[in-house]
Design a protein that fits this description.
- The protein has eight helices and six strands; from the N terminus they run E-E-H-E-H-E-H-E-H-E-H-H-H-H.
- The strands form two sheets. It has a four-stranded parallel beta sheet with strand order 3-2-4-5, with helices on both faces. The chain has a two-stranded antiparallel ribbon with strand order 1-6.
- The protein starts with 11 loop residues before the first strand and ends with a helix.
- The radius of gyration is 19 Å and the shape is globular.
- It has two domains: 120 residues, 3-Layer(aba) Sandwich (Dna Topoisomerase Vi A Subunit, Chain: A, domain 2), CATH 3.40.1360; 52 residues, no CATH class.
- It is an alpha/beta fold.
- Helix 1 links the parallel strand 2 and strand 3.
């Protein structure tokens, strides 16, 4: 009998997840697969693109997980104003004292954030929204080279073409190529992008 050496499939988030920063995102994606977007801390307050992306991703529901401190509460309140109440699912980490390893000092509240609470706590918080069968999604495979080859970057008409597709995806007009690519990789597959050109 041959031994199966393939690695076990990682659980996958069934809904997109919003966290505050890139270290939070790394902590989550270190244990599960899925769509995780950041608010860039308070950056979301001034980013029309980020707000539009969150609204677009919330169609079937979206999870929100912020730190337990005052900043996390401000961001949670702001996002709550963007997404209809019946589509926003609030998740909370416990209030645990400490500081993240990468930081010299603990935050003002002296509490661990999402990045610092550890995998076991995160698994417990996220477990109701995990597909343990390890279903995979095929979003996230569009490259900058493909945008260029499709005329979505590098030509005089690129912005107009990006705006046309952005409109179809309920994204804002005038997105930079970098922001457009990031949004595409959260929303559609390569094949779905190519379908705009057939």
């Amino acid at each position: 009998m041959s031994e199966n050496n393939s690695a076990p499939k990682r659980p996958r988030l069934r809904l997109p997840l919003i966290v505050e920063g890139r270290y939070d995102k790394s902590a989550v994606l270190g244990m599960v697969d899925g769509t995780v977007i950041t608010t860039d801390g308070f950056g979301i307050f001034n980013s029309e693109e980020k707000r539009a992306l969150i609204k677009r991703l919330s169609g079937d529901g979206i999870l929100l997980l912020t730190d337990s401190d005052g900043g996390g509460r401000q961001i949670r309140a702001f996002v709550s104003g963007l997404v209809p109440r019946d589509r926003l699912i609030h998740l909370y980490i416990p209030e645990l004292s400490g500081k993240e390893r990468r930081k010299r000092h603990a935050g003002a509240a002296g509490l661990l954030g999402v990045e610092g609470v550890g995998g076991e706590v995160l698994r417990r918080v996220l477990s109701p929204y995990l597909d343990t069968e390890g279903a995979t999604a095929s979003v996230g495979d569009i490259t900058p080279t493909e945008l260029y080859s499709l005329g979505l970057t590098g030509t005089d008409g690129s912005q107009t073409l990006r705006d046309r597709i952005a409109g179809e995806l309920s994204l804002p007009m005038g997105m930079s190529a970098k922001a457009f690519l990031a949004a595409l990789n959260l929303l559609i597959t390569r094949d779905e992008l190519l379908a705009f050109f057939t």
